[in-house]
TrEMBL record:
Domain of life: Eukaryota
Pfam family, one: TCL1_MTCP1
Species lineage: Eukaryota, Metazoa, Chordata, Craniata, Vertebrata
Gene transcribed to yield this protein: TCL1B
Signal peptide feature range: none
Family from the record: Belongs to the TCL1 family.
InterPro entries, per database record: TCL1_MTCP1 (IPR004832), TCL1_MTCP1_sf (IPR036672)
Protein name: T-cell leukemia/lymphoma protein 1B
PANTHER family membership: PROTEIN P13 MTCP-1, T-CELL LEUKEMIA_LYMPHOMA PROTEIN 1B
GO molecular function, one term: protein serine/threonine kinase activator activity
Transmembrane segments: none
Amino acid sequence: MASGASPCLGVPPHRLWAVRPGIYEDEKGRTWVTVVVRLSPSQRARGSTHEPSITVHMWQMPVHPQKPMSPSQLTLSQLPLMWQLYPGRRYRTMDSRLWEVVDHGQIASTEQLILTQLPPGE
């Protein structure tokens, strides 16, 4: 596809829980691996400060089973510990931030999910 968008797969996972840094599990027990985290300057100013925009690319793929880490061990990650699907193709995180589903599709045989963090108040 010339636009770079992948074929749509319908509804993305309802929940994603961090089990290891960069590795999430959905409600069906499938693992999602963070393959790209992109930081870019925000297009909007909040007062005199600019918040960077964060975009996360995840692929659904099996990983070697490992013991899950406790939430306290995962706090060093800049990514949320949990995403929950919210109306309007958005995820809400435990800190009430919203992430927009930019793409949920398939590349070859790999399911892909791309999320972008929305500025506060969106």
